[in-house]
Amino acid sequence: MVRPPAGVIRGGEVTSDVSVVCDTVVVGSGAGGATVAAELAEAGRDVVLVEEGGYHSTGEFGASSVGALRTLYRDGGGGMTLGRPSVLYAEGRCVGGSTVVNGGMAWRTPSRVLSEWAARDGIRGIAEADMAPCFDEIETRLNVGQQDPETIGTDGLLLRKGADALGWRIVGNRRNQIHCAGSNNCPNGCPTGAKQSMLVTSIPRALRAGTRLYTDCRVTRIVRSADGRARGIVGRLPHARLLVRAATVVVAAGAIQTPVLLLRSGVRHPMLGRNLSLHPNANVIAYFDEDVTGWHGVHQAFQVREFIDDGIILTANNLAPPMLAGMMPAHGAELGDLMAGYNHVVTAGPLVEDTGAGRVRVVPGLGPQVSYRLAARTGRRLLRGLELTAEAMFAAGARRILLPVEGAPPVTSTAAARTFLRGPVPSRALRLYSIHLMGTVRMSEDPRRGVTDSFGQVRGVPGLVVCDASLFPGPTGLNPMETVIALALRNARHLITRR
Question: In this structure, are residues 9 and 213 in contact, taking their beta carbons and an 8 Å threshold?
């Protein structure tokens, strides 16, 4: 096992209870938490960063999706919402959080979304002009830009071929990477360090500035004083307990775990845990006569933006064999036959902008419970997105497509896909997943709507600040990582200047 850098304390190596005092304790080391920790530490604050997952260096990442699911994800990437249909979701759980395992897509929050948030929730400092300096700084620091053309794989080129044949607008993905090698290994951790995740950017910055990072530590509750102010956290290491006393507590554990921790710590607000949005996705499995060899090329090289005003983006990305097999509508010998064509497969599908129709609760004795109701409008968007994806794949030369609908027959033409998807397709039959989880600790200047104010300060709990995607008043309609980092940068600087 590679030794971590100075400042990282592996929880499994701590054998007795630890009590620490600092200025700020940050819970979660992903896009929000790592950004806040680095900014505060570089401003001279004494910071302790606590991460439930382990520290894994770039050299540990490889092609094993099974190994990655075990070490880099919560619950093996197998979170599931209650609802009809249920939605499979994944959360990163490692130093660097979901930035270690996402596809590296880095897009600014659309100006339309920022305007809606400002108008509907009165959020201060959220206009495009306010956020532009944050986006500029982030994109420079994380090297956000277009992919090197020679690393674009056949799966991406086929998506572009289909879009071009249909006259649809398609754009190259903007990603936080430095000369990505195109190994399509993003969900398993970048084996070259090209992806500029928090693991290789903000975490090292925070450590150089003196941050202490405790890994493998599950924070069980936020400590509060008699007057209700946040005063630190209590965490559980594998063999000991961690107590951190701090003047400020920043929670950046994601849209599922942040509300769970707040609820477990006695924070009460009628909107806490509500307003969950998750950008549901669904993939078609398209078979081509030509060799695709999807592992050769970048993860999601392009996005079809022709239908973005309707809340639909189309993408294509390769899935590792175990993940693809889990999506196949077959078992046994039939599954073996389908998987035999792996090198001729493109997986593609729509990412749709949804409505906040989910909720996170804490059930005594069971823990977190996530429910999500697929709104009728969102369901219609998904079905249309699947139809458009099938059309693009057939325009690119696909010979057969499997649809992500229980009981759907294979289709061999756009007309057949259209006929099936425009028929009576019950929502409960859709096979959906998501990696974009947002909105459960909504910020708003309206105290009835917002659990926090415009800068993440939790109402009724002085000294408790939230800095992750749970703050979003609504869905972004795009990959949310850059929005999380920008808000965290903005909120961190607000913390620095107010003291």
Answer: yes
